[in-house]
Amino acid sequence: MSIITAKTSSLSDLKFTLSAILVFFIIGLFTPVILPLTDSQASAIKSFYFFYPDSTQSNLSQVKSEVDSFFKQSDFNVRFQPFSHIKDFNLQITQSKPSFIFIPEWYYQQNKSSLGLKPILRPQRNGSGLYTKVLISQKQSVVNIDNLANHTLAMTTEGDSESSTLTQMLSNYQESSPKDINIINTAKDADAMFAVALGQVDVALVAKSTMEALAKINKRLTKNVKILAESAPIALPVLCYIEGSVTPSDVEKLRHIISEGHGQAKLKNMFQIDGWANVN
Length: 280
Prior knowledge:
Blueprint: H1 2-30, H2 39-42, E1 46-50, H3 60-73, E2 78-82, H4 86-95, E3 100-103, H5 105-115, E4 117-124, E5 130-131, E6 133-138, E7 152-156, H6 165-170, E8 182-186, H7 189-197, E9 203-207, H8 208-217, H9 219-223, E10 225-230, E11 234-235, E12 238-242, H10 248-260, H11 264-271, E13 275-278
Parallel strand pairs: 1-2, 1-3, 7-8, 7-9
Antiparallel strand pairs: 3-12, 4-12, 4-13, 5-11, 6-9, 6-10
Helix pairs in contact: 3-11
């Protein structure tokens, strides 16, 4: 009797073991195996954000098309995304930091520590990494830089900086202060130019290069405006990488592609620059 019981118990244990193995085998067939990404897979696509409202090229669809084509030819896997509004730009950075970023100098200065920005290159125009902005009004207007209070002024944003271009330009005029002016922020420099030329605002602060570029396209537009004042030199935008997001070889590859790669002449023409300078 004891022998029969022992045999029955052994058979039961064997059946249970076989059933368990079968269950685990079936689960294994239908459960995906998740393997860790290799270094090359994790860094395959580099995100590249572009935000520069003072650009002479205001058609961001064209910018994206040209830059995407450039990187495709260069065999550098980049997801390029231009932004026209600072709110969208800041929101996207909050949600997902990029590998590379092209930004105005004021944005770099205000966010370099919090975002871990490391500069790579700065564009050059006419052999210089600087440009100026001009305060303009319609030719028949009586508004001047020393009586801007209670008037409307269109300009691209410069963030929350108290040392903005407008503040510096008005520093020698007691009668005018940015706080007394109705400032209307535009997404693009060209929008501010159009606003003053069409009489939608009293004055505008735009890059001198924007005014010159539009003069080649629409002379009647710029013929109707006059320059009231010109700013001190401002640094052109800077191309940076986010610290810890890319390898040193990625940075050097981008540096080479941007400054010497095939097709970079077309990018220079689009942004009206004549070269790039390394930034340490």
